[in-house]
Design goal:
The protein has about 210 residues and is of the alpha+beta class. It has a domain of about 140 residues: Muramoyl-pentapeptide Carboxypeptidase, domain 2. It contains six helices and eight strands; from the N terminus they run ββαβαβαββββααα. About 35% of the residues are buried. The chain binds zinc ion.
Length: about 210
C-alpha cells in the first residue's frame, strides 16, 4: 500500500532506499514535513514541463544517513531535501538551471553531477551550488546543460511504468509525452506503441540511490 502525499509524490518514494536492512520509516513530525516537501516538489515538477521526476533519495533516518555518508546536518534528515533526476527534461545541469531561474521557493539547489539536490529548509535562502570534481561546493551553476539522452530516458520510462502500472491509457500517453525530446530512435520505438497498449517494457537500470 502506498501513501500519497501530493498528486505526483508518495511517502514511499520520498523515503526510498536500497539499504533494505535499515528501517527508514520517518517519525510523525517528519511525515508532516514530507507532505510539505511533496507539495513544493509539485511546483518543481511544474517548472520542468510536468515531466516525471525520479527521486533517488529523500528522507534519511540517522542510520541511513551515516551509511550513505551524508553530511551530519543534512537536510535529508529532517525531510526537507530531495535528490532527483528529471530525465525527460534534461541532465542535472539543465534541470538546475531551469529551477534556479524560476520563481520557486527553495533553500538550496545543488547540481551534484549526476543528480540534483533541492532542499526546502525554512530559511529558503535560494542558494545555488555546484559540486565540483574535487568534491567541493562552488557557488553558482558551473557545468553546461544538455538535453535528455537515451540511457537516462530509459531509466525514467522504467520509473514511469512502475509508478503508473502501465495499464492506464491516459497514464501511458503521459509517459510517451514525457519521452518526447529524448533520443530519436528511442522515441521512434516507443511511438510504435501508440495508441497506448497494456504495457511498455523497457530494460534499463533504474537510478542508483544517491549519497548526499
Ligand atoms: Zn541530497
Amino acid at each position: 500500500m502506498t501513501t500519497r502525499l501530493s498528486p505526483n509524490f508518495t511517502l514511499e518514494e520520498l523515503c526510498v532506499t536500497q539499504h533494505r536492512d535499515i528501517d527508514n520509516r520517518p517519525p510523525a513530525q517528519v511525515i508532516k514535513t514530507l507532505r510539505e516537501t511533496a507539495r513544493r516538489m509539485e511546483g518543481v515538477r511544474a517548472e520542468l514541463d510536468d515531466r516525471v521526476i525520479t527521486v533517488t533519495s529523500g528522507y534519511r533516518s540517522p542510520e541511513l544517513n551515516r551509511r550513505v555518508g551524508g553530511a551530519r546536518t543534512s537536510a535529508h534528515l529532517k525531510g526537507y531535501a530531495v535528490d532527483f533526476n528529471c530525465h525527460g527534461f534534461g541532465d542535472p545541469a539543465r534541470v538546475c538551471r531551469a529551477l534556479a531561474a524560476a520563481d520557486l521557493p527553495f533553500d538550496q539547489i545543488i547540481e551534484e553531477g549526476s543528480w540534483c539536490h533541492i532542499s526546502f529548509d525554512p530559511r529558503l535562502r535560494r542558494q545555488v551550488l555546484t559540486r565540483t570534481r574535487s568534491g567541493d561546493y562552488a557557488l553558482g551553476l558551473l557545468r553546461a546543460a544538455s538535453r535528455p539522452v537515451l540511457a537516462s530516458a530509459g531509466a525514467m520510462a522504467l520509473t514511469g511504468c512502475a509508478s503508473l502500472g502501465g495499464t492506464d491509457a491516459a497514464a501511458t500517453a503521459k509517459l510517451l509525452e514525457n519521452l518526447r525530446g529524448c533520443e530519436r530512435s528511442y522515441v521512434g520505438t516507443l511511438g510504435g506503441l501508440a495508441p497506448p497498449t497494456a504495457s511498455i517494457s523497457i530494460r534499463c537500470a533504474p537510478d542508483q540511490e544517491t549519497p548526499r
